[in-house]
Amino acid sequence: MRDLKPTTRVGIDIGGTFTDIVLETNGQRFTAKLLTTLNNPADACMHGLESVVQQAQIKPSAVEIIIHGTTLATNAIIERKGATTSMITTRGFRDVIEIGTEGRPEQYDVNILKPEPLVPRRRRFVVSERLNSAGNVLHPLSETELEALIPQLDKAETEALAICFLHSYVNPAHEHVARDFFAKRRPDWLISISSDISPEFREFERFSTTCANAYVQPLTSKYLSEFEERITAGGYKCEMMMMLSSGGLTTVQTAKDVPVRLIESGPAGGAIFACDVAARLGIKQALSFDMGGTTAKICLIDNYKAQTSRRFEVARVYRFRKDSGIPLRIPVIDMVEIGAGGGSIATIDTLGRLTVGPESAGSTPGPACYDQGGTQSTVTDANLVLGRINPDEFANSLLVLNPDAAATALSTHIAKPLNIGSVAAAYGVTEIVCENMANAARVHTIESGKNTNDRTLIAFGGAAPLHICQLADKLGIDRIIVPANAGVGSAAGFLRAPISYEVFRTHYQHLDYFDVEAANSTLLEMEDQARSKVRLGTSADTSLTTHRVAYMRYHGQGHEIAVPLANKPFQDDAAAELQNLFDSEYKIVFGRNIGNIAVAEIVSLAVTVTTEPYADITHTSPDAIQGTSPSVRTAFDSAVEEDRDFTIVSREYLSVSKPVSGPAIITEKETSIVVSSIFKACKLESGDIELLRTEKRILSKKESE
């Protein structure tokens, strides 16, 4: 049973390029950053664990909990390396996961590409059962038909089975019968049923989510079992918990049962990290900016909480474009993700334009400056050429970078084709990648009915602090926070997350005919289900909190919005109260209400049960360690678009009484903070670095002439 206040805990985040490890013990934090070992991700994890344990001078047995986030499920879907999965559905609905919806990433492309379904048609089978939309049986399920499918499923070499019947979200009886039938006859199959994985209407998303869960379940279960064995063999006697895409923690067993909920676990940890920083500093409106080696993630934070969503896409054909991937209906922290990381590859397209990403050099072979066989020019190569990175102190001295290789790659692939110098090419790469990120942030905030220029930018990830001033300038942001250990922010965020679980269920009710008793009964049943999941990782006396949300729309609309509910039973006047709550939320999102011409309706309910999140540890006073004295290095200043002498200081050197004005570079173990000429930086009492704008963008010499 888990101690909810362990004094020694570890967070492990496996990213596309780097694996980050954070250990907290006795008020101190120890970190490690390693290149991700793509062939066996656990290798880098074990090396990182060994490193932080040695730094802390403790034994492995002293670690009380390990919290893990992994890209394994995501990569399995993207690379199509999951299990051989078959699907059984209602007759007439075999092709739902291939037909999809009317969503189009390219509106006018007649040759548009669509994602290949995880279960090909030859492994999709049908039976004649049928329920109506109220869950009443129109045609019973025949075990004779199920028996007849076994030879076909065996011939298809089935390893995992997805059972997706029409309207099973209302009445799951047929799916339960089919699951039990095949579980008895083929106990080695891992079986997912849609009424458990995604019990809601919209069969395309429900079927797709269930197939994805079945597809990654064998691989995920095997990985987690083997990783637990390696941890135990390494002397770690503690429990391991998994980070969910929703920002909460769960047990390994729950993760094995519903691995599709792990898809965005790493980025979720980063959002939790940013929320913790916002709460600690009293920042009610923030923009979380997480940029690593492969991607950048941007998330809106209001009142110390990250924006959430019910829909997510994975394995997009048009990378980072909506409606081009496999849709998943799972609770996720809502963030925009783009191909803008340190390893993002810069190229010249067929029209002679400079483009950056979404393709990434990853950890193998990596950017050209890694000297590991990579020859493509990347964002990291550009920053090295611009003088922003010390080649001898990259990522806690993980690698010694090769400036000549970076310059050669930029010259070959960018500078010569464009007939410009290497520095201009490098600056162009950083400008393009920052504009891509800024544009994504603008679109995301506008779609959410919000804006960016009144927010504080909270930046973390190994690459984010290198670009924050450029990005903030484009977004009109005046204040930036770079927390301690920003380079391993997601792993640190894992250690702030609560144990939680969300249950989501379609529950259609028009407010003109609202059934109070039915709604209360459904919510209580959902809460009991969520509590049972959370209790697996907590002691019986742990305090739990319940959050309820109704997903509502005006009658006749096709999409709904989230309406928070009080944690109490509905009363007789619930319909009027729900209408008022809906009107308020609708106006926030869309700026106006339709008025009295339309009545709202509930389409779904969500219940989340959670423990209290961990409070941040009390770190050793940042000023107790004296940093090295400032030095000077020539680097490119984006604010004036020319080389300047940059003051080089360590994070430890800064204090409240010793601020630094740009241009400057603040160094720390996992990253460097580039402060342009229009910002100044100081260390807050909390140990976080604050950057404040001192003036608007300065004109370069050429512009002023």
Account of the protein in words:
By secondary structure, the chain is α+β, with helices and mostly antiparallel strands. Helices cover 31% and strands 26% of the residues. The protein has 17 helices and 35 strands. Strands 13, 14, 15, 20, 23, 24, 31, 34 and 35 form a 9-stranded mixed β-sheet that branches. Helix 11 packs across helix 12 and helix 12 crosses helix 13.
Write the layout of secondary structure elements.
Elements: E1 8-14, E2 18-25, E3 28-35, H1 41-56, E4 65-69, H2 72-78, E5 85-90, H3 96-99, E6 124-127, E7 130-131, E8 137-139, H4 143-155, E9 160-164, H5 173-185, E10 190-193, H6 194-197, H7 203-233, E11 239-243, E12 249-251, H8 252-257, H9 265-281, E13 285-291, E14 296-302, E15 305-306, E16 308-309, E17 312-314, E18 326-328, E19 332-333, E20 335-338, E21 344-348, E22 354-360, H10 379-385, H11 403-418, H12 422-447, E23 456-460, H13 464-475, E24 479-482, H14 489-494, E25 500-510, H15 516-535, E26 545-554, E27 561-565, H16 574-590, E28 600-610, E29 631-637, E30 642-650, E31 660-661, E32 664-667, E33 672-675, E34 679-683, E35 689-693, H17 701-704
Parallel strand pairs: 1-4, 4-11, 5-6, 5-9, 9-10, 13-23, 23-24, 30-32
Antiparallel strand pairs: 1-2, 2-3, 7-8, 11-12, 13-14, 14-15, 14-20, 16-19, 17-18, 21-22, 24-35, 25-28, 26-27, 26-28, 29-30, 31-34, 32-33, 34-35
Helix pairs in contact: 2-7, 10-11, 10-12, 11-12, 12-13
